[in-house]
Amino acid sequence: MTPIVPPARPGMARAAALALLNRLGIDAQAPTLLGRRGYYRNTMGVPGENDRGIYDDAMLLVSPTAFVTFNANTDPTRAGGHLAVLVPGVYTYKLGIHGLSRPADQRYEALVQAGPVTVQRDDGKRETGWFGINIHRGGYTTTSSEGCQTIWPEQWDAFRELVKSEMRRFNMSTITYALTEFSA
């Protein structure tokens, strides 16, 4: 069985992350999340492809007081129909509850949209709006995404607590999330 998570966290250097953010006009003087779709595209799944259903992407917290990388997924778990893929860009998130349509015991704190996002649907339609594209905990046997950004479950608690801590430290009610795409 092919593993769905790489054996180590992404090895991106702080300088490289800051350079990517700078190209997007973000100076990272406040905590910022950086997503890197396809970070492991040549070492996991089909070489050169952006696979679905595996944690082949990277999520980084970049701030003046912290720099930590996490294994992530930035695509839906599977393909088909009206599923949404977040388009690379700069978005705003806040702390909130993931799974509001689920029973109370299945809801938990995550990062939720604080502004509109742009998605590309698998059926070809591009839309901008409020779609519940959250940043939340993934699963061990699935990335648990219908379009959300998910973090490997063994890293989720550390990710959430670090983001919360950094947002408190900098007195932030929202955090910028910049999604970029690796190009070979």
Question: Rough shape?
Answer: globular
Task: State the total count of DSSP E strands.
Answer: 11
Low-confidence stretches: none
How many individual helices?
Answer: 2
- Helix and strand element order: HEEEEEEEEEEHE
How many domains is the backbone divided into? 1
CATH class: Mainly Beta
SSE class: alpha+beta
- C-alpha Rg (nearest Å): 15 Å
The share of residues in helices is 10-25%
Short description:
With 184 residues, this protein is an alpha+beta fold. Helices cover 15% and strands 34% of the residues. It has a single domain, classed as Beta Barrel (L,D-transpeptidase catalytic domain-like).
Describe this structure in words.
With 184 residues, the chain is of the alpha+beta class. It has a single domain (14-181), classed as L,D-transpeptidase catalytic domain-like, CATH 2.40.440.10. The protein has two helices and eleven strands; from the N terminus they run H-E-E-E-E-E-E-E-E-E-E-H-E. An eight-stranded mixed beta sheet has the order 6-5-11-1-2-3-10-9.
Blueprint of the fold:
Layout: H1 14-23, E1 32-37, E2 57-63, E3 66-73, E4 84-86, E5 89-98, E6 108-113, E7 117-121, E8 126-129, E9 135-137, E10 149-151, H2 153-169, E11 175-181
Parallel strand pairs: 1-11, 9-10
Antiparallel strand pairs: 1-2, 2-3, 3-10, 4-7, 5-6, 5-11, 7-8
